[in-house]
Amino acid sequence: MSTTRIFHKMHSLGNDFMVLDCVSNPQSIDADLVRSWSDRKLGIGFDQLLVIAPPTLATADFDYQIFNADGTQAQQCGNGTRCVAYLANHLGLSKNNHLLWNSAGGMIETTLHNAKQIQTLMPAPILEHKHIPFVGKSEQLTEDMTVCEQTFCVTPVSMGNPHGVIFVESLVDLDVEKIGGEMTAHEFFPERANIGFCQVVDEHFVRLRVYERGVGETLACGTGACAAVVAAHLNGHVNGRVKVSLPGGKLRIQWSGKGHQVVMTGDANLVHRGELVMES
Length: 280
Hints:
It is a single chain. This protein is an alpha+beta fold and about 280 residues long. The protein has 2 domains: about 1-120 and about 265-280, Diaminopimelate Epimerase, Chain A, domain 1; about 130-260, Diaminopimelate Epimerase, Chain A, domain 1 (Roll). The protein has 4 helices and 18 strands. It has an 18-stranded mixed beta sheet that branches. The longest helix is centred in the N-terminal third of the chain and has 13 residues, at about 80-90.
């Protein structure tokens, strides 16, 4: 016997998602389902599965859940925030353009102006190593890490999920899959991490490639862009307003310094609506 349910395929800057409305149609999600759906040849294919669910906190409009392609649950997904904000409006789940979302990585706020301009107010970045978590040899801002027989200077940051930011002279011919794959699994990151390779062009513009834990290199990573700007700001490379160029497009990030939240602005795109056949 089989049943069907509706899903939506979305993307922001090429970071692609399958999104489920579990407000109208509640459903339990397990790792095996996520892995089968994420397969790009045998399933639907996506970087992350996003779930819009009824709020478990009175202060939130919705719960926001994120699953990586390998079935692991993620604490946060920046590009996904804009997609769920757009879809909640599109499906009529809320009449408000300003929404509060409860996620495993903390409370976030989205403001929908239009599909091309959706603003997310992210939590303030976490810099204390034990809360990232990051288990280095010191509590300094940066730490040397050796992978692939090379030593890299890494700035650890959490945006609700752990990141390691590396500044490079050029992103061309950089083996992001190999270096990022080894670094994300390094013992310094006990919960693994997203690894960002950042090239600073000037104080208002950086280029970025990101290896996401549980996924691999993606065309864009919203929390990775936030973490890169935070790390660049702390290291004295950029100002408070920065345009971040990723392989899939550009984001605008604003951060005023320690203790302040990060503001991210970008787009969301609804690709198609489909029916998911589930065998029982």
